User: What shape does this take?
Amino acid sequence: MIQKLRIRFIILSMSTLLAVLLVILGGINITNYSGIVSEADRTLTALSEPPDRFSKNKNSPGKEPNGFWGKFFSEDRNTSRFFSVLLTLDGSVLETDLQSGTIIEPAEASDLAVKAFSKSASHGFAGIYRFCTQSGSDGVRILFLDCGREIKSFRRFLMTSIVLSALGLLLIFGIVVYFSGRIVRPFAESYEKQKQFITDAGHEIKTPLAIIQADADVLEMELGENEWLADIQAHVKQLSGLTNDLFSLARMEEGRAPLQILEIPISDLISEAGESFQSLAQTQGKVIQRAVAPMLSMEADEKALRQLVNILLDNALKYSPEGGSIRLSLEKQGKLLKLTVSNPSLVPLPEENLDRLFERFYRADPSRNSQTGGHGIGLSIAKAIVTAHGGQIHASIAENNALHITATLPQKQPANIMRSQARKVP
Assistant: This one.
């Protein structure tokens, strides 16, 4: 239990940290990318302002271009590369203008323009080029700005931030794992003291209970049957059963209960358990229906599995109304066996409280009425048995407030569990 608590703490801490880190990384890189796009769009807007700059080149060969092109090119020749392509309204290339010095072939520029034109967008990316479109009387002119260096820088920053974040996450994971032991230590000590208290108190209670039972038996022999003696004996029996159940639960949770893992005919075991409860069900005006798949076997402790079925059936009988129908089923699902006990419930069961059914001393009845004879730890023991066999158990609500307790168990136990249990068997 403490180990599970520690694992949950680590998972919760790292999940929270990862979520915060993803938000920070995403925010920084999205802002960085948006800045690149905004700057490129501002540059394209500035380039597209002069209405006559896309006319045929009137500069002499070998000389710097003049006017707007000359001014922009002379200021940013080392930082910006751009070109334009003129297309017809149906997307055919009329001319390319590469006078800005961008290193690109006319054919490649034409292909980029056709791709950009097909997107039907005023702004966008075509490869590493940011483009904007302008419609005019002579056609559609698409202006391209080379953003290769900015995109490369963005990708380098993105990868660097991811790698550094991953390394930082690993470092923090190690720190959290190291300190998680210290954090859960007070809970572990409290839990150990609780278990020790149950063991010690149980031993202390057993002796006076045995004496009270013996004295009551002697008085019954001397005085005959007596209402008060019968009441004493009933309560002594109830306390003895509770003490034994607490011992059993504590041993299972601590992993000290020896399980004799053998191949058992689980279909026969469950059918026999269901049959043994038929007479009790009839006296209460209830019916037990069985739907057990035949010829199924599994590796398990026969005594523990029989106790599991008895607990589930006993719980169903106690908390179902008179005339209710209880269903006991077993089916195979792949390598797993699914054991289900269903019964109509006496009280409404909210779905948010279903997991609490497996807590010690929890009762679904808000009045905590114990007239049914239960101690409130039967399902806790059932969960411990299922967990010890590597399975899972859960509760669910169906129509008409019907309660389903389902235990999913593996047919084969792992080799390490088999060896471990073998060492525990005397």
